[in-house]
Design goal:
Bound molecules: phosphoenolpyruvate
Shape: globular
CATH topology: TIM Barrel
Strand content: 15-25%
Number of helices: 11
CATH superfamily: Aldolase class I
Length: 265
């Protein structure tokens, strides 16, 4: 078994979730090269591009260094066998990918449960791969009851991990109401900061160690663009960002990378 991949502690982690885009491999290549040209030269930022699975292998050949690496948008918990349409962490690792997004709200909306997310995380952690676990409430209520549900979601998703395994996980706080073109509201850095504390508290309970919990990398995701990236990085108590739409525009995305480079100094 190879050594587990280590997260960098001081660098900002900026993750691009391309979702089901672009339509052609040639376009994916162009986008990746445009981004990596800038990303490869940043000292204080680790960039992770998560393209559709079908492009991972070919984009892997374009990875030059550890400043700009690849991630998958999902992986199944079984290693191989009769699971039509699934891709295992083994296969993901055999491309040059080093991260895997798990439990994105768009997958949860298609039926993925906390238990399924938990199985996937455990399977991914058997490899030198880092799971980026998405958590977040669908809506907020004035009484703050959503926090109770969020804690349950985090606890179930991370159940049974050892403190060491927990310290290898990246958690992306993605309030569903603030994600995507149909976002119903805007999450502020102050609101994000409050939830980071909640995540750290749950992680401390799970690992029985506040120290281990503090080492967990937490990202914010939800309509991040060039206008608000700095606010989340400076005032959101997060170590990085998970970016959807803005990551499809190499110009805007590389501008965010430069903002992150500045914020990490
Ligand atoms: C996402 O879906 O993970 C996301 C953050 O999307 P967007 O940046 O488009 O809100």
């Amino acid at each position: 078994m190879q050594k587990p991949s280590k997260k960098s502690t001081s660098k900002k982690l900026i993750v691009a979730n391309w979702k089901m885009n672009p339509l052609k491999g040639s376009e994916a290549k162009k986008m990746f090269l445009g981004i990596s040209k800038i990303a490869n030269n940043l000292k204080n930022v680790e960039t992770v591009i998560c393209p559709p699975l079908v492009y991972l292998e070919s984009l892997g050949q374009l990875v030059e260094n550890r400043s700009c690496v690849l991630g998958a948008q999902d992986a199944f918990w079984e290693h191989s066998g009769a699971y039509t349409g699934q891709v295992s962490p083994d296969m993901v690792f055999n491309t040059k990918a080093r991260y895997v997004i798990v439990g994105h709200s768009e997958r949860r909306a298609m039926g993925e449960t906390d238990e399924m997310v938990n199985k996937k995380i455990k399977s991914i952690l058997q490899f030198p791969l880092i799971p980026i676990v998405c958590v977040g409430e669908n809506t907020r209520d004035e009484d703050g009851l959503y926090i109770k549900d969020l804690k349950i979601q985090i606890r179930r998703s991370l159940a049974g991990l050892t403190p060491f395994e927990l310290s290898r996980v990246v958690i992306a706080y993605e309030p569903v109401w603030a994600i995507g073109a149909k976002a119903k509201g805007v999450c502020t850095p102050a609101e994000c900061r409050e939830i980071v504390q909640v995540i750290q508290q749950v992680a401390a309970d799970l690992s029985e160690s506040a120290d281990h919990a503090r080492r967990i990398t937490i990202l914010y995701g939800g309509s991040v663009d060039i206008t608000n990236a700095e606010g989340f990085l400076e005032n959101g108590s997060v170590q990085g960002l998970l970016i959807g739409r803005a990551s499809l525009d190499p110009k805007a995305f590389t501008q965010i990378l430069k903002i992150a480079e500045k914020a990490s100094k």
